[in-house]
Amino acid sequence: MSPTRKTTTPAAPAATAAKPAAKPAAKVKAVKTPTKTTPAEPAKRVSGSVAFVGIGPGDPGLLTVRALELLRDAEVVVLSENGREQLLSHCPADVAVVDGAFDAEGSPLTPAGRAKAITNAVKGGKRVVRLVDGDGAMTGHLADEAAACVKAGWPFQVVPGVSPVAAVPAFAGVPLTNKSVREVRVVDVADTKIDWASLASKDATLVLSGTTDRSLVGSAVAKLIEVGLDPATPVITTWNGTTTEQRTVAGTLADIAAALPAGTLAPSAVTVVGEVVNLRETLSWFETRPLFGWRVLVPRTKEQSGALSARLRSYGAVPEEVPTISVEPPRTPQQMERAIKGLVTGRYEWVAFTSRNAVRAVREKFEEYGLDARAFSGIKVAAVGEQTAADLAAWGIRADLVPSGEQSAKGLLEDWPPFDEVFDPINRVFLPRADIATDVLVAGLVNLGWEVDDVTAYRTVRAAPPPAPVREAIKGGGFDAVVFTSASTVRNLVGIAGKPHASTVIACIGPSTAAEATEHGLRVDVLAPTPSARELADALADFGEARRASAEEAGEPVLRPSEKRTAARRRR
Fold first, then answer.
1. 163 and 193 Cβ atoms separated by less than 8 Å
2. What value does the CA radius of gyration of the chain take, rounded to a whole number of Å?
3. Which of 291, 408, 449, 526 could be a cystine partner for 507, CB 3.0 to 4.6 Å?
4. Main-chain dihedrals φ then ψ at residue 376, nearest 5 degrees
């Protein structure tokens, strides 16, 4: 073994023997070198991106389809300088939100600071949507923010939005061109190097952006007159454009500034100068809506959808929803549980739904037990009101009986068939309803020969009072109208906030609601022809239209009810 040890051990080798021993070592080193420098797997590429999305001048309905797609897929949203938090409803529930106007200390963000906030947000591979008021491509600081993304190596895209330059005049009833005026010139009055002489042309429409207060408008029109534009040239200034808070003042170069309210108008205020302004008298379509600018109170349950508010908004109103009722499960659920079991086992010939809440209560119980609409097979279903019937249809159930006349328990009884021992194998009706419902329907069905399981499906509890400013507006005439959708909303609103002011228009969804309002000393001005949210909004709009027409016919200014208060109180 000793010769072997001597050949492998480098201790005291001869000079000639050392050279062969060095070669294997060199080979080992050469083989290992590539292994150390070759990575085991490629590095992962960061997938973060930024989309600069123009969100238009104010109306959320003016978003582009592409903007909606990006919002629905966003992981981080950087709000615009004007907030626009309502657009977050299009985003995933777990979206992170970054204030695009102020930093963590509450100081206004500069374009550089905002660019830093954007690049910080995109770190970690997040999909970031930066909301930009109006059209992002026309916003000056967008270039700085996009350049910051380029510098940091983040990919980005720009989604144009509806520009206030065109949208706000359009909503004010002023097209920027016509057959005789084909040129439009746009200038930001914040620019200190404007060549006003080059802008003063009677053959072009001039759009002044950045006219955020009366002094800026006054300075601009003074310079236009100074460079030779006719002082009688028509002018409009519009602020809060495309929203139900939109306001427009019309005049001439000589008097427009004096006609405007003092102080700040709005960041997006737009002034239009030129002959096309005269078209407003015939083309005004937005501000002449029947309820334009009306502040309408919508008492509701916490669970109700905004269908009524959406319909009111389509007529130009500004709805404010105030919860007056909270719908809660019954205190003792056993009665409801027995009724559901009886429905499945064939105990009932009819099920009568008198409200949307009743439909929801039964459906929730069905889902709790793993049942679906197939359990209604062979059972006749009645519904009061188109919304109740619509909720049943959404569940896959078509109502067999809906009142042909008055949409109420009374109207349902007028159409309900009497029990017939020959044609009706079962004589029992399941009636899920509120704990405070009247007995009119039960008594009527019993008189028709039916047996009724009158089951408390849900309880109605009075909601907490609204904030003090809302209560003061209700009692002081700050609202133009109140729309009552049930007798309980009347009782509860009066209970938590007091009676509406005498100047406020009272609109009711049906006769029983109107009777409750009268009982509380309120004069009912509007009654829906059929009890539905859509008909109620339409009826209020008809009232507003008639009121406007009457004022115009009398040569009087068109004022909202809250602008025409009287000291008279409603008769008690």
1. no
2. 35
3. 526
4. -85, 5
- Burial label for 9, CB within 10 Å (0-12, 13-18, 19+), is exposed
State how far the alpha carbon of 15 is from the alpha carbons of 23, 27, 28, 518, 569, in Å.
Answer: 14, 20, 22, 122, 123
Q: How much is the average pLDDT of 360-385? A: 91
Alpha helical stretches, state H, 209-306: 214-226, 256-259, 280-283
Question: What confidence tier does 565 reach under pLDDT thresholds 50, 70, 90?
Answer: low
Terminal CA-CA length for the chain:
124
Torsion angle, alpha carbons of 84, 87, 92, 93, to 10: 60
Contact 261, 155 (CB under 8 A): no
Q: Which residues pair with 353 in a beta bridge?
A: 383
- The stretches of 159-279 forming alpha helices (DSSP H) are 164-171, 196-199, 214-226, 256-259
- Which residue(s) pair with 183 in the sheet? 204
- Report which residue type is found at 11: A
As beta bridge partners, residue 74 has none
What stretches of 9-124 show up as alpha helix (H) in DSSP?
A: 15-37, 65-72, 111-122
Of 179, 168, 147, 275, the C-alpha closest to 211 is: 168
Asked if 479 and 560 count as a contact pair (C-beta separation under 8 A), the reply is no
What is the mean pLDDT of the segment spanning 208-232? 94
Collapsing DSSP states into helix, strand and coil, what is residue 283?
helix
Least confident of 216-225, 315-324, 435-444: 435-444
Q: Which ranges of 190-349 does DSSP label H, i.e. alpha helix?
A: 196-199, 214-226, 256-259, 280-283, 307-314, 334-344
What digits encode the pLDDT tens for the residues 488-544?
A: 899 999 999 999 999 999 999 989 899 999 999 999 999 999 888 899 999 999 999
Count Cβ atoms within 10 A of the Cβ of residue 332 and give its class: 0-12 exposed, 13-18 middle, 19 or more buried: exposed
Report the run of H or E that residue 144 belongs to, with start and end.
Answer: helix 142-152
Do residues 461 and 325 touch, judged by C-beta distance below 8 A? yes
Distance CA 97, CA 129 (A): 10
Q: Look up tokens 């249809």; give the residue.
A: 393
* H helix count then E strand count, the chain: 20, 19
Q: Minimal CA–CA distance to 178: which of 206, 208, 199, 205?
A: 205
pLDDT in tens, 285-305: 999 999 999 999 999 765 555
Contact 310, 286 (CB under 8 A): no
350 touches 383 (CB < 8 A): no
Find where tokens 């200390």 sit: 105
